[in-house]
Each structure stands twice: as structure tokens, then as C-alpha cells.
Amino acid sequence: MIDLDHARIRFKTKTGHVDAVRDVSLRVEEGEVFGLVGESGSGKSTVLRALAGLTPLHGGSLRIGSRHGRHDVQMVFQDPYGALHPRFTVDKTLREPLAINGIGDQDARILAALAEVGLGAAFRFRYPHQLSGGQRQRVSIARALIVEPRVLLLDEPTSALDVSVQAEILNLLRRLHRERGLTMILVSHNLAVIGFLCQRVAVMRNGEIVEQLSVDAVRSRDVAHEYTRRLLLATEGYTRGDGTRLESEQGA
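Request: output the structure for the sequence above.
Response:
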């Protein structure tokens, strides 16, 4: 579904340029959940923005599916407080992508989208300031899914939320992946989050991928690169039990 080959992304600065992403290659199969993990500034969010078409490549190539339409790829951003227009009701937020893409039956689609992310019809005409952080992120997810994408890009979707709400959103994303068969790429600095949702993970540092491995290898700490080991240590308390805890809350 996603094929990124020797990608380079360069930004201009006052003193010249910065190579934010250098020679990054990855392949994600249809229906797979793939993780990108690394510290701030490692280039992982820049890669995600390139996949979304928000940042151009300076070199290399990118292919996503067959690019049947603009709405095939949708993105959920990190900050649920900044991602929603403060003067738009939830209804207008969800109606806008339908109008842009010429999709009809809008009222029914809006109600179905809200129900799918666990929000009732009562939320339809509320403004963002009337919603909690978790509710705002659910609206952001509904906005991304309402145009029926094949690929969902997730940029630290839980990092701005309280721990208890993080578990709810992760369980929601896991259910949506299972029900819709979505291809997902999840960016996070937290290997516990990656381990819960993803099948494979690429570890980024200084704009490069230093290691790609399965989540089973992460869980068993069977890693080759010292930087990956340090990330594991930084993810305090990461055990198989974290995944079990989240699964137990799935129906909550």
C-alpha cells in the first residue's frame, strides 16, 4: 500500500538548508499497522507529512496505493485542541470534507461517523470548547474516516491526552483497524503505544531509519541497535502487561 524509496526531505534555513530526512525507505502492506518511533526531531513526523502530501520530497520516490482520489489518505494530528476550528460545530467540521469531496447523504454520514467513534448525536452541534480532549480527538478521527480513506496517518494521536483517555483512544483505533481493514502508520515516541497497535516498527534517529523490526522483537527486547535499547529503557514499565491492560479496557 505504501512504498517510500530512498526519500530525502530538505528544509531551507537562514544559513543554508537542513536535511530533515535522509535516505529513508520503508514499505507498508495493505491492512498493516506500521509504527515510526524516535525522539523529537528524529524526522518521523516529517515522513508522515510527506506521506500526507503536506511536505514535498527533495529526492527519492513515494507511492501510496493507486492514488484513486485525494481522500484515500487522511491524517489525525497530535493536538486535539489545535486540530479543530474553534468556530465550527462538530457538524460543520464533519460536513466540510464531505462537501469538498462531493460526497452526498451528509446528515446520515455525520451521524454514522459520530457513532463509530463513540459519540452520540448530542455532540453534533457542540463547539470544540464544549468537548474534552478525548472527545476532540474522537471528532478528529471521525473527520478523517468520514471520507472512507484506505490509509490513516496518526501523528502522536494520544500524547496530548491523559493516560486514562489514551487507553480509550488506542482501543478505538485498534477496533477501527479491525473493522475497516485500514492501513495505518502511527508516529510515536512511546514504544508501549507502538507495541499495542503495530505489527512492525521503524526506529528513526537524526533523519534516518536505524532499525526496522517486528513488534514481537520489541516485546522480547530482541533489538540490534543501541539507540533502540535506549528507547526501550525510556519507555518505563513497558511489559506485555501493558498490552493486556489495554485489551481489557477495549469494551469500556
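The radius of gyration is 18 Å.
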